[in-house]
Automatic annotation (TrEMBL):
InterPro entries named among the record's database cross-references: DHquinase_II, DHquinase_II_CS, DHquinase_II_sf
Subunit-structure text: Homododecamer.
Protein name: 3-dehydroquinate dehydratase
Name of the gene encoding the protein in the UniProt record: aroQ
Organism: Iocasia fonsfrigidae
E.C. numbers: 4.2.1.10
SUPFAM superfamilies: Type II 3-dehydroquinate dehydratase
Catalytic reaction annotation: 3-dehydroquinate = 3-dehydroshikimate + H2O
Feature type site, description Transition state stabilizer: 18
Top-rank EC class of the record's enzyme: lyase
Family: Belongs to the type-II 3-dehydroquinase family.
Pathway terms, separated by semicolons: Metabolic intermediate biosynthesis; chorismate biosynthesis; chorismate from D-erythrose 4-phosphate and phosphoenolpyruvate: step 3/7
NCBIfam families membership: aroQ (TIGR01088), PRK05395.1-2 (NF003805), PRK05395.1-3 (NF003806), PRK05395.1-4 (NF003807)
């Protein structure tokens, strides 16, 4: 069975509370339930992880890369400056799909730049929590087609 890592970056533990007009009303648990339900439908296993700490996310990627066949990640604020996270994702040589709940290109100028996008196979931005579902489907399709 394919195993996919789904990573929520800093502040995503506050979903449903933090700026609901931007990020929606769904809690991280509700988002995770959506992801797990879709994973079951796709017949894949997901390992969902959230941390507010850059180094812990890097450790999670390093520790599990032999187990995962792909990564779905919402890097949160790390999107815009974390070369360390970018390098960790690039090092494991797995298909990565970057997700953002809000449309980062309709927000503040500093959010328009992603250091993750150049090493990702794709980016989904602005489709709310459903973006995680689309990202999961995309990474599974990429793996099954052998196009990575």
């Amino acid at each position: 069975m394919l195993k996919i890592a789904v990573i929520h970056g800093p502040n995503l533990n506050m979903l449903g509370t933090r700026e609901p007009e931007v990020y929606g009303m769904e809690s991280i648990q509700q988002v995770n339930d959506m992801i797990n339900k879709r994973a079951g439908f796709l017949n894949v296993e997901v390992k969902i992880y959230q941390s507010n700490h850059e180094g812990e996310i890097v450790d999670f990627i390093h520790e599990g890369y032999n187990d995962y066949k792909g990564i779905v990640i919402n890097p949160g604020g790390l999107t815009h400056y974390s070369i360390v996270l970018r390098d960790a994702l690039a090092a494991v040589k797995l298909p990565v799909v970057e997700v953002h709940i809000s449309n980062i290109y309709q927000r503040e100028e500093f959010r328009h730049n992603s250091v993750i996008a150049p090493i990702a196979v794709g980016q989904i931005s602005g489709l709310g929590p459903d973006g995680y579902i689309y990202a999961l489907e995309a990474v599974v399709n990429i793996i099954k087609k052998g196009s990575f």
